[in-house]
Amino acid sequence: MRAVIQRVNEASVRVDGEIIGKIGRGLVVLLGIAVDDTQTDAEYLSEKIVGLRIFPDEAGKFAFSVQDVQGEMLVVSQFTLYGDCHKGRRPSFSDAAGVDTALPLYEYFVACMKQQQVPVATGKFQATMAVQLVNDGPVTLIVESR
Hints:
- The chain is an alpha/beta fold and about 150 residues long.
- About 20% of the residues lie in helices and about 40% in strands.
- The strands form two sheets. Strands 1, 2, 3, 6, 7 and 8 form a six-stranded mixed sheet that branches. It has a two-stranded antiparallel ribbon with strand order 4-5.
- Helix 1 (about 40-50) packs parallel to helix 2 (about 100-115).
- The chain is globular and about 45 Å long.
- It starts with a strand and ends with a strand.
């Protein structure tokens, strides 16, 4: 699994013009699932992300996690994180999991986040989404389960 994490002041996701997920201060997690990912990857990555100390203390040092600041999370599936652009001009997505694997793992990842007492909003799997966010910092990190 691969996640692009952005620290935000607020974020939302729309499908067909309607807001389906919205958060205040917290993290936007763009989540890519690979063909060989398992629930173990989802458990590891969810714990890693929730525990990341990327919110500043009074001195501006990264000291607090999303739990520490009582933040929220917006999780959006993004198979394009496994796009391979090495050959030609059109990305290959052969490393991205198909819907039969990806959807249950995406839902399991979200459930793992919620078990850690973090409010979680989501996008809609396989939908065309418009994600709006106000970056805080900006702070953007890439975290992988392997």
